[in-house]
């Protein structure tokens, strides 16, 4: 039986969070929804948590030997019956009307293949940190998606199943950036086929041990994604490569700083400015990241106030979506 929407949840050792993720998928206001949980060889109590939902008629569960997050998503893609498909990482949560909002946009917009939403940031305990991701533009070109991972997370996107079939699913080679690489391949199918819903429709959880906090891993994987983009549209990458590299280095500097690697963060932010000074100058994120990093090299008596100002500026930037 075909469905309107399939939600794929890959799971690996997230016993603390997976129950909330599954419940958020089952609580969708869109009735014609199936939820596919792929237990990717978890060694903690994730399987026990998943079992609590086993009687729900909308839920399908499959278990496999550990093969990685990307492989688990592809397993879910292969099982999905939905006209549209969305991903939900097992430590995140969809808001109740996320599915309905995405499907409504896709149903009335045959020119779109992929949609994504803004997000709210929560901490490990599920508390609202005040962080918001509001990326722009709302109708990005391929070039825009090369410069930044505007979709932000796999949890953000809902796409046509036919588009996923055309590009052949996700790729293991992209690893921590597999969602970005997947979005770029869909965006290359036809012009103007991606759009944002300007509402925070899911909770993105920040927690210890996340792949997305490992800046060295992301640096390697992002380089692969840029090569894929170059193969898809050499002219587009030629136009924006310097901007893309500058933005990537700025983001890596922020991750390194957040991880306590002060020297590495300074080197990365200096390299970012050297790579693309004109592109970074108008971006508030670039200035707040730089201020946070540089403040640690000033006398102790002024570090605290400057860092506090940088944190406040960063919160303002997040709320503004800049």
Describe the structure.
The model has no long low-confidence stretch (mean pLDDT about 90). The chain is α/β, with parallel strands linked by helices. It is globular. It contains 13 helices and 9 strands. Strands 1, 2, 3, 4, 5, 6, 7, 8 and 9 form a 9-stranded mixed beta sheet that branches. The longest helix has 25 residues, at about 235-260. It has 2 domains: about 5-215, Spore Coat Polysaccharide Biosynthesis Protein SpsA, Chain A (Alpha-Beta Complex); about 235-320, no CATH class. It has helices at about 20-25, 45-50, 70-80, 100-110, 140-145, 160-165, 180-185, 215-230, 235-260, 260-275, 275-280, 285-295, 300-320, and strands at about 5-10, 35-40, 60-65, 80-85, 95, 115-120, 130-135, 155-160, 195-205. Helix content is about 50%, strand content about 20%.
Average pLDDT level: 92
The topology string of helices and strands comes to: EHEHEHEEHEEHEHHEHHHHHH
Query: Which architecture of the largest domain would the CATH scheme give at its second level?
Result: Alpha-Beta Complex
Number of helices: 13
Sequence-ordered SSE layout with sheet pairings:
Elements: E1 3-11, H1 18-26, E2 33-40, H2 46-51, E3 59-64, H3 69-79, E4 82-87, E5 93-94, H4 98-108, E6 114-122, E7 128-133, H5 142-147, E8 157-160, H6 161-167, H7 178-187, E9 194-205, H8 215-232, H9 234-258, H10 262-275, H11 277-280, H12 284-294, H13 300-320
Parallel strand pairs: 1-2, 1-4, 2-3, 6-9
Antiparallel strand pairs: 4-8, 5-9, 6-7, 6-8
